[in-house]
Every structure is written in structure tokens, then in C-alpha cells.
UniProtKB/TrEMBL annotation:
Xref: Gene3D superfamilies: P-loop containing nucleotide triphosphate hydrolases (3.40.50.300)
UniProt GO molecular function: hydrolase activity
Domain of life: Eukaryota
One Pfam family per UniProt: Helicase_C
Positions of region (Disordered): 166-194
Keywords recorded for this protein, A-Z: Hydrolase
Protein name: Helicase C-terminal domain-containing protein
UniProt KW DNA-binding keyword: no
Domain named Helicase C-terminal: residues: 1-157
Biased composition (Acidic residues): 172-187
Residue ranges crossing the lipid bilayer per the database entry: none
Record bears the keyword Manganese: no
Amino acid sequence: MKWFRFFLDNQAHGKIVVFHHWKHTSKIAEKILKEKQYGDVYLKANMTIEDRVKFTERFNKDPQEKLCLLASIKIGGEGMSMVGASVCVFLDLMWNPAWHAQAMDRLHRQAQVKPVTIYMPMTRDTYEEEIWFRQNAKQTFLNLIYPNDPPGELELSHYPPELLQWLKDNPEPENDGNEDDEAEDDDYIGRDEI
């Protein structure tokens, strides 16, 4: 997750929404957000729809620019509006491209007045790349069935040279959250309420 530290250090877009699939990934991300002094709101599966809406409304209206909404991809796909942010980051990929599309749509709502940038970092020659290719194949198939939808093929881009240099110059911290994996989701309720 060194790239996530680099991203936050060079993030100039204001509020961000970070989606994850694995609980362990979210714990590491939350630790990094605290380290980088981001305010964070964590949406979780056992919250009521009303609480989720309340948290996202606070996130959207809060004037603080260094703020992150952290949510699972599935929670992010449940009809909420996250137009307070103009940047979306996916920490892990899922096999079903519909989950990603639905989560991205949370930022592309009617009230959105800023351009939205989506980041889906992955490592080449790993299972993430295989997920990526399978997602594109599924989306291409869907475009045959629904030809009026936007094209499904998303372009892969390489990491910028400044990130590669930063990764070389900044070793991974000793403890990146691996020891705290037994914590329950309930620990995150109401953390840093806006």
C-alpha cells in the first residue's frame, strides 16, 4: 500500500472516496489515512440505510478538504450520493465489474459539479491483472447485449515515473496493520464523525 501513501501525499483534489473489498485492506487504509491526518468516515455493512445516508450527507456538506469516506464496494453501491468528492480510489478489485460501476456511479450523481477521477491501481502479473482482464471481457459482452451503454474497455496506464522513484526511496513501514486483523467492524462505528 505504499502507492496509497504516495497518492495521499500528492493528492490535490480535496475529498476522496476509497472503496475496498477486503476488511484487512480497509484497516491498513484507515491507518494510513490517520497517519496522513485525513479525517475519515467509515461506512459499514451493519449500519442502517438511514445512518449511511446521514454519514454521506455530512461528508458531502463538510467544508473540510482533507476528508476521506471509506466504504466497502458493496456498501458503496446502495443508492447513496457521494458527490462531495471528485476522486474515487478502489483498493481492491472484484470479479464482477457491475460492483465497480455501481460504486463509481455514487460520485456521478446529478448534484456533482466537479469532474470525477477514478483510480484502480493494480500490480501487473498478479491475480489483480487477471481480474482486470476478466472484468473487461464481461463488460465487452454486456456491451454486445446493451449497445447504447458506454464502451466497457478501460485503458491500462503505467505508474508515473515520480511514483516509481518515490516507491524506491520510501521503504515499507515495519507494521502496516497486519497484527490488528482480528478487530471487528463494530470498532469503526462513528469514528471521526464529521
